[in-house]
Amino acid sequence: MLIQILGFLLETAFFVLVAAALLRAWMNWLRISMIGQPGNFVMALTDWLVKPLRRALPQRLLKARVDWASLIAAALMALGYALLWWVLFSVLTGMPTAGLSLASVIFLPVVALKMLIRVALQTLFMLVLGYAVLSWVQPGSMAYGLLARLTEPLLAPFRRVIPAVGGVDLSALVLMLVLQIGLMILG
User: Fold this and answer.
1) In tens digits, what is the pLDDT along the chain, a chain of 187 residues?
2) How many angstroms separate the CA atoms of 97 and 88, rounded?
3) In terms of C-beta density within 10 A (0-12 exposed, 13-18 middle, 19 or more buried), how is residue 11 classed?
């Protein structure tokens, strides 16, 4: 029971950190202002790692449209999650942690990559769900406008293929199904 509780808390904390770093990278890619929410929130959660990475990365990477510092921060946090999860599991189950075996060296990056992909898919699902709900409830709100900008690059390919049915855009529903299938495959 203790392992489950600690594992849940560890996973939740790292989910929020990794999601914030990925959202920061996505917002920078789309050139969405970081002033206001959620920009202030993701910057507050990730500045401690992103700023030092920006100083350490070569200038040519910093001038690219891709926010490499945020993406690397997300990857490092996912790797940190995998390492802490391995230590927690090893300590609480009584397994020796005296060294990283070859299996552990392979296992940790795989767990980190799985965490990164899962967080990305779940975060996108939440953004699309929020967009879909607000499109029905409050389509003129500022939150709807922000969610529309965040989800539009993902929804546009579906809108080109899927016609509106009775004036209802089903692209968000189809994208959520695709994201759920991706999560099922990952699981």
Assistant:
1) 777 898 899 999 999 999 999 999 999 999 999 998 899 999 999 999 999 999 998 887 777 789 999 999 999 999 999 999 888 877 766 665 555 666 677 888 999 999 999 999 999 999 999 999 999 899 899 999 999 999 999 999 999 999 888 878 899 999 999 999 999 999 8
2) 10
3) middle
